Amino acid sequence: MNERELVEKARSGDFKAFTALINAHSNKIYALARRLSGNDQDAEDIVQDTFLKAIDKIDQFRGEASFGTWLYSIALNEGKSLLAKQKRADLKPIEDYLPSNTAQELHDVSHLKLFDWKDPHEVFEDGELRKVLDEAIDELPYEYRVAFLLRYHEELSIKEIAGIIGESVAATKSRVLRARLALRDRLSGVFEEQYG
User: Fold this and answer.
1) Model confidence pLDDT, tens digit, residues 38-95
2) Which of 72, 74, 144, 167 has its CA 20 to 30 A from that of 34?
3) Residue numbers in the chain where pLDDT is lower than 50
4) Quick one: three-class SS letters along the chain?
């Protein structure tokens, strides 16, 4: 049975169909929730709230995106809500992590003194450096962390991410770029110290 058929059955109250939909995406939703929250307990709360909301709102799923993308959207909202409740929303602005504050300076990287290291996506796969990168990602402000994780961890397209977070494609590209620049700047000193 394909996803569309499962959604139709779930809409008509077939709990087995809904369970099949959830089971197909539960590992990815948990992994995203874990990355967003930083701990197992909050991740489990986010996942539980996501699935409960999905049950309640299944009739509102329009099918314009995949069911998994719809679940990501719910999980992101639940994660944001949980983090706001925990008052983790008062993180430093992204500009504090960036090497510059103006758009022109962001595009002119010749003045930056960055250690030459791999792209964050490649480093993400490297087990030795994974912990360092995980900690740096966790320090990013929520909206930049979400954009980075959806692009490089979940490997969604910019267009898919834009739909999930409710931003334009241009704004989403900017968030991903800024997250990458912030991570590069934040980690360059660590890598220079360890490998320079």
Assistant:
1) 888 889 999 999 999 998 898 888 888 889 999 999 999 998 888 777 754 455 556 6
2) 167
3) 88-89, 101, 103, 105-107, 109-116
4) CCHHHHHHHHHCCCHHHHHHHHHHHHHHHHHHHHHHHCCHHHHHHHHHHHHHHHHHHHHHCCCCCCHHHHHHHHHHHHHHHHHHHCCCCCCCCHHHCCCCCCHHHHHCHHHCCCCCCCCHHHHHCCHHHHHHHHHHHHHCCHHHHHHHHHHHHCCCCHHHHHHHHCCCHHHHHHHHHHHHHHHHHHHHHHHHHHHC
> What are the structural domains, with CATH classification, of the chain?
3-85 (1.10.1740.10), 94-195 (1.10.10.10)
Q: In residues, how long is the chain? A: 196
pTM: 0.62
